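Pipeline run #58 for the internal structure catalog. This entry was flagged by the ingest filter as a single-chain record with no existing model, so it goes straight to prediction. Upstream metadata was stripped on purpose; only the residue string is passed forward. Reviewer on rotation: M.T. Logging verbosity set to normal.
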Amino acid sequence: MQTENKGDFRPQKKSTRWILKSILAILVVLVLLVLIVVPAFVSSENGRRTILAKINSSVEGKTDFAGLSMGWVKGIKITDFSFRDKAGRILVAVKQIAAKPHYLAILTGNLSFGETVIDRPTVQINLETPQSQKAAAPQQQASAGEESRTIAVPINKIDLVVRDGDVKITGEKALTVELSQINSKVNLRPAGQQTNFDVNMTVVGQTGQSNIRADGRINPAAAKTGWTLKGTTGEITVEVNDLDISSLAPILALAGADVQAKGRISVSINGKIQDGRFENLASTVNGKDLDITVGQLKGDRLKINRLDAGIKLHRENDLLNIEKLQIDSDWLNAEAGGAVPTTFGSLAEFTKPDSKYSLKGSFKLDLAALLSQLPKTIGLKPDTKITAGRLSGSVETTGQADQRKISGEINLADLAGSVAGKPVALSEPLTAAAIITSEKSGLKFDKLDVSSAFCKINCTGSTESFKYQADVNLAKLQAEMGQFIDTGTYKFAGSFLGSGSVSTSKDKIIAAGTSSVKNLLIIAKDGVNAFEPNADIDFSVAVERQKNVLNIDSVKLGAAFGRVNIKNAVLPLGEKTDKPMSLAVSMESIDLEKLRPFMILFASFPKEMLLAGIADSQVSVSSEKDVYRITTDSTRIKNLRVIYPGQTPFEQPEISVIFDVETNPAQKQLAVRKLELTSPQIKIHKGEFIQSQDGGQTKLQGRLDYEYDWAALGAIAGPFLPAGLRLTGKRNDTITFSSQWPYGKTDQMLANMTGSAALGWQSAEYMGLQMGQTEIKAQIEKGKLTIPPFTTTMNNGTLSFAANADFRQKPAMLTISKPMSILKDVQINDRVAAALLKNVNPIFASAKNTQGTANLDCNELAIPLSGGTETDTKIDATVSIMNLHLQSPVLEVLALLLQKNINSGMTLHPSQFVMRQGVLTYDKMQLDLGDLAMLFGGQMGPGDKIKMSVTVPGLGGVAFKGTKDKPQLDPVKIAELTLQQQLFGGKQKGTGAQPGQQPQQQQPLSQEQQLIKGLEGLLKGKK
C-alpha cells in the first residue's frame, strides 16, 4: 500500500508545476499579444474606423482624421484631424497631433500626456443666428434640483506646444475677429510643481491687428483640492499692443459676457507673485476713445476719450509701497505715492510717530462728465442734466520729532444742473476733513468733521477715547439730494441728534451715547403720514475683540407709542466666536393706535382698518451653532379694538400669545414648534409649522387647531375677504397641510400641496344674498383641490355647488366637473341687481324696488384662483327670472314709448349667455313686459363697457350708449320715436309677440313711409 501511495503522489506534484508554468506562459503570451496587437489594431484602417465610430456616436457632429498611428515608444500621432458640429457653426482642422503619453499613469487615472504638439490648428466659430432660429422658443431652464458642476480633470503632466494656430470667430452682424499666428508652449504640472507658459498671438479685427504676448512661471502650493491661488508663487508678463477692443465682441459673446466695448488699448503687466499676492507689480494702461457698457450699468455707457495710467509697487510685509500711481484722463486725474497698510497690524505700524512710512496722494473727478454718462446707474431723475460739479480729495503724512500727522479731506462742490429744465444745485459744499496726530501716548483726532447744508458731524479725542456729535436735518437732506436722485416714495421732516463716546483698549471697544429724533414726519405719496414728536435712544455696548462678540449692556427706546428695552444681550459678530446669541427684548405699553400709522407705511397694514389697544411683550432670542430660537410666553394686548368698514368691530379685553420658533438661515429652515393664542372669541389651541431644505427640495408641513367666532374675526379678516362679505357663527376647525417643491421655486408650493381644511358659517351675507348654515370640507391632494357638493339656503331659495381646481396648471382655475343647477328660486333685491345683475342686462342699472325669483344653470364655470386675470374667466350658463318687478331708468323710457305699465310684472325667459375674455355675450334675452316681448342682445364688458341693443315690437331696434352703471338708450333714436308718437298719436301698429312667444319679424317701414302713414292718420282724425 505504501509503495502504491508514493507512486500516486509524485506524478501529482509534476502536474501542478506544469499547470503553473503553462498559466505563466499563457499570461506572457497574452501580454505580448496586447503589446503587439493593440498598436497594430489602433494603427490599422479597421481601428481608425472603430475609433471614429465611437467618437461620432458620442458627439453632436462629425469627426474625421486621415491617419492614426500608435507605438509604445513613438507615442500617438493623428494626421489631418477635422471636426464639424451638427449645426455647422464650429469647424476644426489640425494638420497633425503628436503626443507621447505615459500609459501607466493614464491607467491609474492621471492624465499624463508628456510632450504634445498640435501643428497648424485652425478653428472657425460662427455665432450668427440663422434666420430660421431667430423666432425660436427661449432655452428651457435647468430642471428642478439641477446644478451646474465644474468637472475637474486629474492632469498630471502635459507639455503642450501649439504651432501656427488660427482661430476665427464670426459674431452677430458678421463682425469677425481672428486670432492668428498662435504659437504657445505650456508645461502644465500638478499643484506643488512649477508650470511654465509662453503664449504669442496676433488679433486681427476690422480696423487692423494687434500683438498679444503672455509668459510666466507659476508654482501653486500643493493642496488637497488641486490648484488654488493661495500659496502660489511665480512671475507673469503680459503685453497687449494697440488692441481694438471692439474686435473682441465675438469672443465676449462666446464667453457669455454682457459687455460691449469700443476704443483702442495697450497694456503692459510685469509682476511677481508670492503666496498668492503680487509681491512686485509694474503696469501701464493706455487707452483712446474708450466706450464701454456692461449689464450692471443699466444701459448707460462709460466713455473715456483719453486714458494714461501707470502703477509700480512692491509689498513689504503687510504694506504696499507705491513707488508710482498715476491716472490721467479727460475726467479723472489721480496720483499717489508711499505706503498703504493692508491689515490692522500694518496700520498700527504706519501710524507710529517714528514710522518710516509716508503717504501722499490726491484725486480730482469731474462729476458733470461722469454723472452725465451714468444717469441710470447713479439713479438720477429722468431728464436730469448735470452741468457742473467736482469731487476732489487728498491725503498726506508729515512728521517731526516724536510726532506725526495724517491729514486728509474730501470735497464735493459746485454740483449743479437742471431737471426738466428747472435749475437745481447743492446750496453748500459737502466736505469731510480729518487731521490725526500720532504721538507716543497714542493717536489724537485733532479734527474729524463732516459738514454740509443738511448735516454736521464732528469727533474729538483719541483712539483710546473720543466723543462725537451729530446733527442731521432730514428735510434738508431730502431736499438737497432729492433734487438730483429719487429719494423714494416717502417725504421726511424732522431732525436727528446724537452724541456719545467711544473708548478702546486692547481687548474691548466700549460705546455709549444718546440719540433723539424730534418731530419726525413721514408722508407717503398717497397722503398717508406718520408723526413722532420725540423718540429717544440710550445705549451702552461693548465689543470684545478676542471673543468676537457684541455685549449690549442696555438699549432703551422711548417714543410716543411706547418703550422698547434690551438688557444684558450678547450678539456674535462672526462665525468664530465663543459665545452664542442671547437677546431679551422687552416691549412695554405699546400704544397700537399710535403705532398704526407706521404699520401702514412700513408693514403693509390696511389703512382702512382702525386699531387700538396696549401691548406688552417679552421676547427672547438665543442661538446654538446655526440655529436661532425665538420664544415668548408673555405677550399680551389689553383692550384690543379692530374696526374694518362693513364688519362688526372686534373688541377683546385681553389677548395672550405664546410661540416658540426655530430658524436656521444657513439651511433655510423654519420651525414653529408652538403657537397658542387665547382670547374670548378667538383661540389657537395648537399651531405647528416646519419648513426645511433637503436634497434640492423645500419641504413644508403644518397643522392649525383653532376656535373662532366669525362675528369677531370679520374685522380682522376683512382685508382678506371679498368686500361686503359678512359671516356669523362659532367654529372649531383644523387645517393640515404639507408640500414639497424644488428649491427656489415657491410658485410650485400649491402645485405639490396636500392637506385638508373645513370652512363654514351659521349665516352669511354678500351682495344682497343671504345664505344659511353651511359646512364645506375641502381636500387638496398633490395640488388638486376638491370641494365636495354642498347645498345651503339663499334668499328663500337654494344654492348648490361643487368644484375642483388644479394648481399644477397655469393659471389655476376653479371649475365645475359637470353641468349643475347652482341657483334655484332665489329671491333678488336691489343689492343683487346693483352688484350682479347690472352686469347681465342694462335694465338692472340703478334699479329700485327689485323683486323676482331667479334661477341659474351652469354648463361651464371656470374662475381663476392664482396666476390668472378676469379675462381667464369662462362661463356658459342660463339665467331666468320669474315675477320680476323693478323700476329703472331704462324700463321707464321703454314703458313710456310703449305706453305700458311696468308695475304689472315681467318675466325674463331662460336665456343662455357666455363669458370669454372678460366679455359677457348673448344673442337673445327675452323680457316680457305686459303683452309685449322685448329682445336684448349684445355684449357687456370688458370692464364697464357695453355694446347692447334691444328690439321692441313696433319700434324696431334701439342701441344702448353709456356704461354698465349708466346705460342710456340711443337719444337720437328715442327722439325720433317720441316725435313719431306726438305726430301720429301713438297709433302705428306692430306685430308684437304674445308673452312667452318670440316676436315675429316684419319688414320695417322707412322714415318716409312712417311719415306718410302718420299724416294719413292725422287727416283722418280731422275728418
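catalog note: The chain is about 15% helix and 55% strand.
catalog note: Residues 2-43 form the longest helix (42 residues).
status: ready for reviewer M.T.
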